[in-house]
Write a sequence for this structure.
């Protein structure tokens, strides 16, 4: 392996805080094994995880004037085979680490290999590169429920399943707001009935109110018809959704959530 320059202390600290995060980071025993496998001395095993890792990295880097074994540690920590049935955790760790590594011109691929990339210079550029699709959604001020219902799909940039989960999330929210157990058009018709609505986005006192109410109801039905029914019954290979389509669909779902936020 070619010599990889030392990593500046603030970037090294940021990497350690991700990979040794209390909730989503490596366990103490995993850190111990990976340090040994990467031939890095575990100099302060009694410290908190991220400080333990930082000290081990810093000592090795100071003694060797490069970061090769540190990068080897990260590659080992992000080997896809370690994450069978834990895809969301893999994508979270890889994305967060790559945000930091992008500032020094490298990243870990989805195969767990090291690749060179152009250096980023701003935080927004790093965010965009690490999670392109999710970054674009956040830039649109997307409703937080969209992220809640399909975060793992967003991290994988899986457009097909992202929009499917987002539209399912709209239906689930309507059920939570009304106590109904129906689905699809029957759910929407009952929830937004103009005779006895369980959800009202206005007081339904004027023709304009009624038009707005029916417009939202039909928008939800349209979303179900365009996305939920086809994605539930057509193989993914035959129902292609590209990034632009997915962004537009997510924006519509977000608009519906924001309207529901203002329900009376």
């Amino acid at each position: 392996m070619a010599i990889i320059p030392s990593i500046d202390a603030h970037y090294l600290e940021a990497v350690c805080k991700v990979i040794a995060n209390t909730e989503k980071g490596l366990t103490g025993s995993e850190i111990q094994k990976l340090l040994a496998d990467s031939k890095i001395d575990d100099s302060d095993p009694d410290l908190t995880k991220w400080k333990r890792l930082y000290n081990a990295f810093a000592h090795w880097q100071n003694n060797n004037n490069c970061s090769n074994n540190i990068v080897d540690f990260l590659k080992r920590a992000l080997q896809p085979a370690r994450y069978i049935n834990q895809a969301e955790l893999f994508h979270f760790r890889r994305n967060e680490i790559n945000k930091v590594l992008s500032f020094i011109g490298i990243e870990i691929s989805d195969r767990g290999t090291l690749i060179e990339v152009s250096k980023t210079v701003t935080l927004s550029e790093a965010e965009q590169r690490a999670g392109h699709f999710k970054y674009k959604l956040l830039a649109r001020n997307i409703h937080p429920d969209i992220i809640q219902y399909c975060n793992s799909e967003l991290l994988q940039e899986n457009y097909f399943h992202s929009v499917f989960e987002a539209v399912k999330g709209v239906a689930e929210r309507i059920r939570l707001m009304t106590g109904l157990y129906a689905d699809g058009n029957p759910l929407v018709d009952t929830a937004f009935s103009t005779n006895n609505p369980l959800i009202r986005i206005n007081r339904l006192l004027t023709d304009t109110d009624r038009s707005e109410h029916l417009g939202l109801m039909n928008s939800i039905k349209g979303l179900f018809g365009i996305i939920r029914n086809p994605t539930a019954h057509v193989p993914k290979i035959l129902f292609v959704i590209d990034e632009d389509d997915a962004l537009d669909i997510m924006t519509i779902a977000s608009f519906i959530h924001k309207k529901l936020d203002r329900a009376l």
Q: What stands out?
A: Strands lie at 106-108, 114-116. The radius of gyration is 24 Å. The mean pLDDT is 88. The chain has twelve helices and two strands.
